[in-house]
């Protein structure tokens, strides 16, 4: 800095500098390698003369230098982990920049002589070395004291979230009031420093925890966060049975979540647990979107944490399920406080759902931490600490919480299953009719353009209904919306039946039927999906949504398998009859069932605002613009194999063969989904997405090589399997690069752009095929067979898709977006103003 004399040459005024330093740093003590100079020798040009600087001041007696071999070893480990030249014996590990994952590295480097919790409780080199020398580090037992000194009158025992560590509650321990000792529960198999411990069943851990808690003097308050809520509740119940009542139970960021009752649900869980439908990577990304595990993890640590998380998820779900099945349930006599973050996506509908905790306690109260996400025990520790301190004091005075809200009774699971089953049958019936009408058009006209126009009439109404369908489902009775939509579809089906009976069915009515049916479906489906949260008890919501999603995705597969056979056996009138019967079954159930007036997830902003906001978000990031451009071309080209596979098959084979071969596409999609669930995708998701495009292109080439059903089936299998892989990588990119609060905007904009390109592709398939059909592009395998023009077009389009994938790999902006576009990190404070959140995101 220039401390020159006014009007002077700008040379340093050393006397003024010394005076200023002494005023700012009186009696300043520094480590031995640093010195506060009383005078600064200068060279001839006025620069500091480094060669003439005095030697550092020697260290004073009692300084922070490590003095024992153990202290020197600990200091060296800290310095290596934190990337520092040296560490003093009294330096605080966390003041130096350490965090929970750096702590794991320290524990591992010290060969497990101390635990992760030991580093938190003894955060200086000298204190930690003392634990090692005394042999008191890495103690046994589940309880680890994190905060509160001296004799405590209240013990706050905190069970961590799935896969979590007790050190997650260190910020909370520093925030609670005096007289409260905070203990974390060190769950077996969760400490990355002790990878060989192995996880233990929830009931077994609860029994062991009860034994430790019974010896604690004073009052006990149990706190469970997220999946830890099940263990906290089980422990509270067991403690009361053992004659040691708790002062209170706190369930944070969680609600009871049980599987659907019944043998089928139990069998599905046994053979395919729900947690196996997500890869480790997907699990980790979902947690990061909520604000957890933001640090980079060692692969071995990540594997152990994900194993622990899956174990905790299964154990919690099983405990809630078994308790839900009990006809008579004991409850704790203590009050229960349900704490949620106002902006926590995992506890939506908390205004109603907190009352579900009356399954565990009679006295239940709700507390909401404003602008908080899921991990408020870390990000809003002062607010949470003040809340818990206040509740503990009230409970000790004998105050009880107010009675929870009264909500309309839930419907039984049988009602939901009846609605879900009949809706699935109706979807299959509609799919059968669509499949049969496509065959009818091709057989009557022989025109690819006429056949592709059906797809245009299906897609366009969906695009037009997008701005309205979600709003209608939010603002009107879902049951009435479904009945009106079904009524429109019913009128069109009646017209189809009449025209078939009269022998007057014409092409224009098929287009009208397809368009009106798609329009009705565009309103019916959002209303049905929103109504699930009203129909099924919300503790079963996860599995219920999974079953509905499975039904929706399998409907087309079932329709393709059955459609070809049925149209060959009973013709178009028979297929339409099946559609009418399934439709009447669905409408009858909806008309008879009453939807309870319970909360459901509403659209947070209008479709128009989603699109404009999403467009601003995309255009501000060149990587996301490249992603949109890439998929605009991809979606246009993808319309060709979607359209041409059917006429290629029907040119040489009957409808029954078409149905079986088409089903291989659905099978490929299913196996693609399983592959992504097990694998998780490539390390760089953009590379997996782009490479998947080239694989899909090769499958399209296979599709066009021959009219033989086996090759066409193999091509369709590859096309839809690769499509699932491409889409999974794309969705993972969006979820990791776009904050959870803003994903709706970005996904809505992407969906609109994708759907906008599909009609253009369908409209140009016919003319392009007609032009390419005049060229000698068909392979020799088409000799003596029909459909060579279709095969040649598919080979050309497949080759273009392969090249487009290569272009994507060469396009640096797109290929490197995993690295160049930062991951979205959930903010500690989350406002409800999406525009403000978007502006903050643009600053990063």
List keywords for this structure.
844 residues, 7 strands, seven-stranded mixed β-sheet, 60% helix
Brief summary of the model shown:
The protein is built from 30 helices and 7 strands. It is mainly alpha-helical.
Can you walk me through this structure?
This protein has a 7-stranded mixed β-sheet, with helices on both faces. The radius of gyration is 33 Å and the shape is globular. It has helices spanning 14-24, 69-82, 100-109, 116-121, 125-134, 170-175, 202-213, 228-241, 263-271, 280-289, 299-324, 350-353, 376-379, 381-396, 413-445, 448-475, 478-502, 507-535, 541-569, 571-592, 607-619, 622-650, 655-679, 685-703, 709-737, 743-772, 788-810, 812-815, 817-820, 834-843, and strands at residues 143-147, 154-159, 180-185, 219-225, 248-252, 336-341, 364-369. By secondary structure, it is mostly helical. α15 packs antiparallel against α16 (448-475) and α16 runs parallel beside α18 (507-535). It starts with 13 loop residues before the first helix and ends with a helix.
């Amino acid at each position: 800095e220039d401390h020159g004399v006014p009007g002077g040459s700008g040379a340093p005024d050393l006397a003024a500098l010394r005076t200023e330093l002494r005023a700012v740093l009186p009696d300043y003590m520094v480590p031995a390698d640093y010195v506060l100079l009383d005078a600064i020798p200068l060279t001839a040009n006025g620069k500091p003369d480094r060669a003439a600087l005095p030697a550092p001041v020697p260290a004073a007696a009692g300084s922070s230098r490590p003095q024992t071999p153990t202290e020197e070893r600990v200091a060296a480990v800290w310095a290596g982990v934190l990337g520092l030249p040296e560490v003093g014996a009294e330096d605080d590990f966390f003041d130096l920049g350490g965090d929970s994952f750096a702590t794991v590295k320290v524990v591992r480097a010290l060969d497990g002589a101390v635990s992760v919790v030991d580093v938190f409780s003894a955060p200086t080199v000298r204190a930690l070395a003392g634990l090692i020398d005394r042999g008191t580090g890495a103690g046994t037992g589940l309880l680890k004291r994190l905060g509160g000194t001296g004799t405590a009158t209240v013990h706050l025992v905190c069970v961590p979230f799935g896969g979590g560590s007790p050190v997650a509650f260190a910020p909370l321990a520093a925030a609670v009031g005096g007289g409260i000792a905070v203990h974390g529960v060190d769950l077996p198999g969760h400490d990355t420093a002790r990878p060989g411990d192995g996880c233990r069943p929830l009931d077994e851990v609860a029994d062991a925890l009860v034994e430790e808690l019974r010896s604690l003097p004073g009052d006990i308050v149990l706190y469970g966060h997220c999946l830890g809520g099940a263990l906290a509740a089980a422990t509270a119940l067991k403690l009361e049975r053992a004659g040691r009542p708790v002062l209170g139970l706190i369930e944070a960021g969680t609600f009871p979540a049980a599987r659907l009752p019944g043998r089928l649900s139990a069998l599905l869980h046994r053979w395919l647990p729900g947690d196996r439908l997500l890869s480790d990577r997907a699990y980790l990304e979902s947690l990061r979107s909520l604000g957890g595990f933001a640090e980079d993890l060692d692969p071995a640590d990540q594997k152990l944490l994900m194993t622990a998380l899956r174990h905790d998820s299964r154990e919690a779900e099983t405990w809630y399920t078994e308790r839900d099945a009990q006809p008579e349930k004991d409850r704790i006599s203590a009050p229960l406080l349900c704490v949620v973050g106002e902006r926590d996506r995992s506890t939506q509908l908390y205004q109603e759902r907190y009352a579900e905790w009356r399954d565990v306690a009679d006295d239940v109260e709700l507390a909401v931490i404003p602008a908080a996400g899921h991990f408020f025990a870390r990000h809003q520790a002062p607010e949470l600490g003040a809340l818990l301190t206040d509740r503990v004091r009230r409970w000790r005075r004998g105050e009880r919480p107010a009675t929870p809200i009264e909500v309309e009774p839930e419907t039984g699971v049988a009602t939901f299953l009846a609605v879900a089953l009949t809706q699935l049958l109706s979807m299959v019936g509609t799919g059968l009719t669509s499949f049969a009408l496509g065959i009818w058009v091709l057989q009557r006209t022989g025109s690819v353009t006429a056949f592709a126009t059906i797809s245009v009439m299906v897609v366009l109404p969906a695009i037009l209904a997008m701005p309205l369908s979600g709003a209608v489902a939010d603002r009107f009775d879902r049951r009435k919306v479904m009945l009106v939509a079904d009524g429109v579809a019913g009128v069109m089906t009646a017209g189809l039946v009449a025209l078939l009976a009269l022998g007057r069915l014409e092409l224009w009515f098929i287009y009208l039927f397809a368009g009106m049916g798609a329009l009705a479906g565009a309103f019916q489906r959002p209303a049905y999906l929103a109504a699930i949260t009203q129909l099924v008890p919300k503790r079963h919501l996860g599995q219920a949504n999974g079953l509905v999603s499975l039904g929706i995705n399998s409907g087309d597969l079932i329709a393709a398998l059955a459609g070809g056979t049925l149209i060959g056996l009973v013709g178009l009138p028979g297929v339409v009859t099946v559609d009418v019967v399934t439709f009447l079954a669905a409408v009858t159930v909806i008309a008879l069932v009453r939807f309870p007036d319970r909360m459901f997830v509403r659209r947070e902003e209008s479709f128009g605002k989603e699109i404009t906001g999403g467009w601003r978000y995309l255009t501000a990031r060149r990587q996301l613009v490249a992603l949109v451009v890439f998929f605009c071309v991809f979606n246009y080209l993808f319309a060709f194999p979607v359209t041409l596979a059917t006429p290629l098959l029907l040119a040489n084979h009957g409808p029954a063969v078409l149905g079986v071969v088409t089903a291989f596409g659905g099978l490929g999609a299913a196996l693609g989904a399983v592959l992504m669930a097990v694998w998780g995708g490539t390390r760089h998701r953009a590379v997996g997405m782009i490479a998947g495009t080239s694989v899909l292109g090769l499958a399209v080439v296979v599709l066009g090589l021959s009219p033989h059903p086996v090759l066409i089936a193999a091509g369709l299998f590859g096309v839809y399997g690769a499509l699932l892989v491409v889409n999974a990588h794309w969705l993972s990119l969006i979820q990791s690069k776009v904050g959870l609060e803003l994903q709706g905007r970005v996904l809505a904009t992407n969906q609109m752009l994708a759907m906008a390109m599909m009609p253009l592709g369908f409209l140009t398939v016919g003319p392009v095929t007609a032009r390419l059909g005049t060229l000698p592009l068909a392979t020799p395998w088409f000799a003596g067979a029909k459909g060579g023009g279709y095969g040649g077009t598919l080979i050309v389009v497949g080759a273009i898709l392969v090249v487009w994938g290569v272009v994507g790999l060469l396009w640096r902006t797109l290929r490197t977006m995993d690295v160049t576009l930062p991951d979205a990190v959930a903010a500690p404070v989350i406002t409800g103003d999406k525009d403000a959140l978007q502006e903050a995101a643009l600053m990063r």
